[in-house]
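ingest -> fold -> write
write: protein_1
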Amino acid sequence: MNDLFDAPSPESRVRELREQLARHNRLYYEEATPEISDADYDRLFRELETLEAAHPHLATLDSPTRRVGGAPLESFQSIQHLVPMLSIDDVFELKDAEVPEAELIEFYRRIQKNLGREQVTVTIEPKIDGVAVSLVYREGRLAYAATRGDGTTGDDVTNNVRTIRSIPLSLPQPYPSLLEVRGEIFMPNEAFAAMNAERDEAGLPTFANPRNATAGTIKQLDPKVVAKRPLAFLAHGLGAYDGPELPTEHDFHQLLQRLGIPRNQPIIEAGSLDTLLTAVGRLNHDRHALDHATDGAVVKVLARQERDQLGFTSRAPRWAAAYKFLPEQRETLLKDITIQVGRTGVLTPVAELEPVHLSGTTVSRATLHNEEEIQRKDIRIGDTVVVEKAGEIIPAVVKVVTEKRPTHARPFSLVEHVGGRCPSCGGPISKEEGFVAWRCGNFECPAQAVSKIKQFASRKALDITGMGETVAEALVRHGLCHTPLDLFTLDRDSLASLNLGDESDPRRFGEKNATKVIESLDRARTQTLDRWLFAMGIRQVGESAAKELARLHANLEEVADSTVLRAVLEVADLEARRKRVSPRSKESPPANEVEKAQRQDEHDRLKARADALSLDLAAFKLSPDAGTVVAESVRSFFQSPAGQHVLIRLRELGIDPRSANYRPTPPTGPQSDQPLAGKTFVITGTLSISRDDMKQLLETHGAKVSGSISGNTDYLLCGEGGGSKRDKAEKLGVPILEESQLQDLLN
């Protein structure tokens, strides 16, 4: 028979693909026994995506394609739990106590007393250090997911939870008509470490621990961001339920296993106090082999009938407790302190330790965070120190064993340790007032080259197509680029032959990709001043600050020698000096009437000068984005050797970035051609043009565009479907404009 007649209908093929993908998800995420490669999985996924695009009526909320994330939300909606989502009371392992498990023993004896018998069977399972959520399935499909919130009401995070591949969106038959599963969303340890490494290489801030990363991710308003983060889920409790009876905790876990919902493991059973203490001790030892953070053991009465008999307090069940383990600590020798230069130029001290076994792994290095932390803890080279894993993941020095300190140990100074120079490039280092981190400000520092190139080429900067992290790393590794400006010296042939892999697995960049990069670099030469300022990665200069600087200056040379920024800094200096000499100063009052009169004269002189300068600056209608901090950072950069080198190289390359929103302002009088100068807008709803285009239009006319409503917002520009931002604007009394009214304002 002709293949045409054998081809399955779109409906049947979509159904088949969904079943296959659900099965492969289960094999990969729950059973760790994948049957196909990632490439084969992606092929099936793309086929389903194509079919759903061609037949929109076949797209459903429980399709695997929904895991890539939908449109960003404006805010989370509240949702009331079907059954109160109570927390579990903590009992603690007591440090230096004669019986460290005393609180756990007391919990078990209270159960014995309330049930009126000696032998009570309980289960013991790892306490996952994640974010608690509730998943509600109705008729076999995920209806919604919610955070714990206050226990009665939580945030609806369904769109974000749908992106987590280990959570099934639909259940196999037979399934309960209603099933509410409670569990924890978390980041596996290895995935967390890999994500942090990628963020560090990209010059982004790293997360302190997996729980912080998870909590920050699950509250993202953009599900596409969530889809890119390595989240996982494990179930551990039952909420609302309408189905066959589940007499014990084991029956509940068997149901989870049959339905393909990942569950917390191991579940250990104990029938007496002695076996309970043994099981908890064994779990404390074995938990370090798990691929997620744990900070204790959850103990529950096995039988649901006995749970009903024990009941609840106002905030927690009487039949469960979370036994919190003490962090494992070890003493070891701090042999040296080395300094790492991060991709953003921050110098981070690292403790080089005598290797010690800690929480399941051998630790030989630990972060010391910064010089201030070292001095606060009085850490010295040669000290015996106590180390633990912060959040059971990241090794950290807790304290010094001072009684074991050698006589030759000296207080640590980072500047003396590195001789006042960057360990990577030998350039000068500096520390901004009010900050604890030392930084290398050299634009050519090799330790920062990759992150600076990536920032330089990013979409909001110079938008250089094809210049991702892998390509940037290869360019630096092969010596083709030392600074972002070296990109403009590349030719098509050298780019095409660039090896993105290594000698054992070479991967050529290719002519097609090289052509895209060269064409993007040609366009970048004429990109606007604000994009160039953002691309340079100057401290404190984000997208908004770059726009404001471009409004105030015609080109880069003007920014580098800005009279406006110089005046901003002079006003700040005058104000600081005025406060110091004030005759009413409580910190340093005048010694006598003569000094008081002298200081009053000096105070008045400084104030008069500051007021005059402030009056001149008022004509520019400066936004906070061009305040003292930004002015200081920009001036420092362009006065440094690195900044001067940038100006020289740009002249050599024939590049002269010009402002697209520059409006010269007279020394006095308002800005007649910038009707929105100094005004803050928030955009919501569907407009006649894209939000990015509208944002650019507003900024071209002098406005600042913010992402959230506050008392400082001047206008809410509202399109169709304004939602919660419109409600908040009405509540705060913020004027609401439609597009037609905006046009009137511009005219």
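write: protein_2
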Amino acid sequence: MVVTGVNKRVFNSILWPDSNAVNMREEDPDFFVDLNLDQIIGAIVAPYKDYKLRPFFDTLADGPDTVRYRQDIFRDLEKADVFTFMNDFSIKMRDVHRYISGLDRLFEWQRRGWILDAAILYFGAIKDLARNLGNAELNSEGLISLRDYVQEYVNSESLRKRADQANDIKKKLLAIRYEMSFGPSRITVRKNKGRESYNAIIQDTFSKFRSDRKPAVNKKRFNDSSMNHVEAQVLALIARMFPEEFGELSGFCDSNSSFIDPVLEAVYREIHFYLSYLGYISTIKKTGLEFCLPEICTDHDIYCLNTFDLALAHKLIASRSPVVPNDFQMSGKEKALVVTGPNNGGKTTFARSFGQAFFLAALGMPVPGSKARLFVPDNIYTHFEKTEDPENLMGKLEDDLVRMRRILYMATDRSIIIVNEMLSSTTLKDAIQIGREIIGLIIRKNAVCVYVTFLEEFARLEGVVSMVSQVDPASHDIRTFKIRRTDPNGLAYAKAIAEKYNLTCEKIIGRVS
């Protein structure tokens, strides 16, 4: 179906503006664990297991156009009315799928009735979506294209005929009246002869014996086979007595076994990419922390203000602990952020938040921060300390260098490289020499890098921005978790930690003697 209102594109997706044949990843990228993205994405998709959303989050957008396409949809969904009716469409479609998913456990006529009910619910959901999209103020190409597609679909003669047919069959089935008589081992079913119905009389007579005195509630049992074999045989007898009505039901089900439009089926799944993420960050936003849709650039003049580690933020908020945001900025010939400072000062957390910001931006999502300007990376590479593998016959240093060589071979000027505490298994002199070579190669690659280290010599290299984790000026054993752009200060604050835990040389000697 061709959409003529927006760039004359053929609409088929609210994730991909141009293609419906995107090669989706089926497993997490290598950097997920290092950046805690496995925790973040796991928590996002957990309430939506039936939708198989993981590949959407595993696959980076194919360029700035796709990112901006998604950003505009996020802007529309941040409007309360748009979010509400798109979420309502999701709920109705979920109910349609619950009907369909239970069909194989049902008796024949019950199954056909569920198909009819699912179709009626689907047709109503699509009509409601068309009306709501038509009344909404939309600015995104994706939702405008969806609106045009749905409107043309709803107005099509085929859909109108099927919807009218389904509703007409439902009315005829609801109008059926029959009588049942029960004997010692026999149930007789016959057409209603106009006798008085005793249903209301019996319910009223015995209502005083109800323990709760509350009206009965009819619950939808979508996946529960709510009919036993006796009820199924009764229904079969009714179908024989009313062949016209049930014949129309059979004809409808046979000709509408796949009544869901494939494009709208894809949209139903894809909308959860947006809804799930907005739901995930809503808890964090309530605490006052900010999210923004970054300006997408093609150069390396980048920044992100008040950003934070999304996985850590969820844990801290759950324990009612404060979240400390930080800034980063690079421009001109600056290609690497070298982060130094005392241990447990937030250096690794800062590096993770840097990688998370670029990853989320590359998905077209709001990133943690008040304002940002980022480019779309072709990949993110991480080198974090790993537990030694007994089956790996290489030494620790050799393994580090082999991993780093692979990263440098694959990285481009559109790549992000994050290195955390590398070269701890060699001498200080060798570590400085090797580290300088690695940072130099990264800069010559024109990639963007964050390098977390205790070696302050790296912070003074050309093309490097020095950032230092801070401590409380009044008490050096207290970490503020702020990472500031400043020259390295040559202080590890190890003595302050030793004093806090009575592990100074004097205290140890005093205890021993």
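write: annotation protein_2
The chain has two domains: 1-23+59-208+221-286, 292-512.
The two ends are 87 Å apart (CA to CA).
pipeline exit 0
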